[in-house]
Sequence to fold (325 residues):
Amino acid sequence: MKSYWARITGGKIAVELRDIPRPDPGPGQLLVRVRAAGLNRGEFIIGHSLQAEGSAKPAGMEAAGEVVACGAGVQGWAPGQRVMGRCGGAFAEYVLMDAREALPVPVRLSWEQAAGVPLTSLVVHDMLVLQGRLQAGQWLLIPGVSSGVGVTALTMAKALGAQVIGTSGSQAKLDRLQTLGLDLGLCTRQPDFHAAVMQATGGQGVNLVVNTVGGSVFAECVRCLAFEGRLATVGYVDGVLHADIDLDALHAKRLTLFGVSNKLRSAAQKAEFVPEFRAQILPLLEEGRITPVVDRVLPFEQLAEAKVAMEAGEHLGKIVLAGLP
Fold:
């Protein structure tokens, strides 16, 4: 079968197409015929995934498709069913998926929409609900709101009844996001949004920040937090890995700072909260209260072009590969 691999070459991550044997499902696994797979910026950032020059691994982290076969011990799934989930090596004709990670594809979703749900939405659920404790009526700030994670956080937060402030360097993207419920869009790529955030929140600050940008805006995010506010760090596309921490604010305002990553989690740890996502968020997708935002769909043969588009920040929402051979 055809499968894309990511490799560090010359200090950069490049993708290459390989021909490898089709895998067989082991205990607790599903073999899935991939119909579409979503791109995620993190897997193409050195340090997020691959580490050393020359290292390589199957590319792709989330997919949607049809169950082909079930491994020993799998219950609740049968060949032919539509499934979506996180999985390593998603940019391929077939992929193995941990049955604990598998989610049924809502009838209203296309393959392309479903492919953009699993990884991003589970990460956002972790940030907003599991660790972020976001409640209806509270304020959420998303620097970099037009990214895949940012747009998913916006749509999920609105479905949960929160108010959302987002920053982006593109006014056109902010205007489009207002149609998805963005309460306040701030056109900036700089850490200069504190005054506007405080004005919008009546001087109280926001209850939760989802920092998709990195260290360059970290201190400004802390400044924007309300009493007992929470700050989630989910990425560092700016490449800035260190930032000052205002210990006085951390102490006096009883702040919570946390990271969201699956890099060091075991398979069991990653699957632990999938049932909660299935109970809390999947119904919102089924009812249409959350609709995945797909910016563009490219054919399987154009992964390299899709990667370039994603790294250029041209998209709003998810970029998806489809039409797999």
Observations:
- Residues 81 and 209 are 37 Å apart (CA to CA).
- The chain has two domains: 2-117+292-322, 123-259.
- The mean pLDDT is 94.
- The first strand starts at residue 2 and ends at 9.
